[in-house]
TrEMBL record:
The gene is Egfl6_0. Belongs to the nephronectin family. InterPro entries: EGF, EGF-like_Ca-bd_dom, EGF-type_Asp/Asn_hydroxyl_site, EGF_Ca-bd_CS, Growth_fac_rcpt_cys_sf, Nephronectin_domain, NOTCH1_EGF-like. CDD domains: EGF_CA. This is EGFL6 protein. Keywords: Calcium, Cell adhesion, Developmental protein, Differentiation, Disulfide bond, EGF-like domain, Extracellular matrix, Repeat, Secreted, Signal. One of its GO terms (molecular function) is calcium ion binding. Pfam families: EGF_CA. Coiled coil: none annotated. Residues 32-71, 112-150, 157-195 form the EGF-like domain. It is found in: Secreted, Extracellular space, Extracellular matrix. One of its GO terms (biological process) is cell adhesion.
Length: 197
């Protein structure tokens, strides 16, 4: 079976037919399913969509149970956690709904971990790290765009001269470079290429 456009988060099952992994949808399985918007809702109280999955968390005074329901907890109510809590051997601990969040100094609220600055995030060559609340993603560097070629996604150089996104002077030639472009004044003109006289 060959899938010309590929199956980003799935496998090719027939000519251009993808079977998506759980949590993904779309013709090429490249879209995240927002499980929090599904009916019936997967969480009793609050739901946070994550890449390919979701996390449940409870309102104050409730404790998250393994099946995603929220059970009343007097001890959790007293601790006043931002995203619910768990009780282990009589000890109450506040929880954060994502691995990209950590408990703040007060032990009750969750603060974002900037994976881009801590070096936890590893983006491949030609990609830069973008931090999000509770996670991160890798984006193509400026001057490159995400392309699907020969069975995989990669960051390909944008030819600004062809796409007409350059700012060269009317009397200048545009020369494409990796990730950028240059402007050179035509014969009989002098200047930076952005200004030619």
């Amino acid at each position: 079976a060959t899938c010309g456009h590929g199956c980003k988060y799935g496998e090719c099952m027939g000519p251009n037919k993808c079977k998506c992994f759980p949590g993904f949808t779309g013709k090429t399985c490249n879209q995240d399913v927002n499980e929090c918007g599904l009916k019936p809702r997967p969480c009793e109280h609050r739901c946070m969509n994550t890449h390919g999955s979701y996390k449940c968390y409870c309102l104050n005074g409730y404790m998250l149970m393994p099946d995603g329901t929220c059970a009343s907890s007097r001890t959790c109510d007293m601790v006043n956690c931002q995203y619910g809590c768990e009780e282990v051997k009589g000890q109450v601990h506040c929880l954060c709904p994502s691995g990209g969040l950590q408990l703040g100094p007060n032990g009750r609220t969750c603060i974002d971990i900037d994976e881009c600055s801590t070096g936890k995030a590893v983006c491949s060559y030609n990609r830069r790290c973008v931090n999000t609340f509770g996670s991160f993603y890798c984006k193509c560097q400026q001057g490159y765009e995400l392309k699907y070629t020969s069975g995989r996604y990669s960051c390909a150089d944008v030819n600004e001269c062809v796409t007409n996104t350059h700012r060269c002077n009317l009397h200048a030639e545009c020369l494409n470079t990796q990730g950028s472009f240059q402007c050179k004044c035509k014969q009989g003109y002098r200047g930076s290429g952005f200004d030619c006289a």
